[in-house]
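User: For a benchmark we're assembling, each entry needs the component sequences followed by a predicted structure for the full assembly. Here are entry 17's components. Please fill in the structure.
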Amino acid sequence: SQTIHQWPATLVQPVGSPLSLECTVEGTSNPNLYWYRQAAGRGLQLLFYSVGIGQISSEVPQNLSASRPQDRQFILSSKKLLLSDSGFYLCAWKGGAGSVYGYTFGSGTRLTVV
Amino acid sequence: GEDVEQSLFLSVREGDSSVINCTYTDSSSTYLYWYKQEPGAGLQLLTYIFSNMDMKQDQRLTVLLNKKDKHLSLRIADTQTGDSAIYFCAETLSGTYKYIFGTGTRLKVLA
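Assistant: Structure for entry 17:
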């Protein structure tokens, strides 16, 4: 069965520090991978998606970047965190544009920038 | 534009029915989804409906789709305290890999 792992679960980082959040998927190959951010009391904002190794699409201009060094690994990074980067970050995978079963989400990382 | 709208809050008594509404924008969306998010957790797919359907029932859940008005609803029968969560609707944008999520409706079930 397919599973998705996301870590760490919580993170408190000072302003200006770097960030690396990792997401890995098991039990599937060539998944479409996504990073979403959920700010407090708000909906989900799509940050990045990837349809293959080294292929990253950015949805919004921001302080963050993403990389996909391996087929089932998706990394969210920042060189210098801002206070506005605080939020709940969710990784998700999907089996292709025609997949009916929607996304499978990781358990999320709560990032607090202080 | 890409905008999926939901009311932010809903409060119901245990045992009553809950109806969560959603208005979407892309008339060519192939599938529409309902997700549930419990506190501090990721999103869990509850159910989905294909765009050529008007209704789908799955145990206590009933999804109604009005394509003319671009309106989607989720009815939860016999609502329980364990149903307290945030519920998101989502649409697929045709020909893309993207989903657009609503802002989420926070359902509070009163004992």
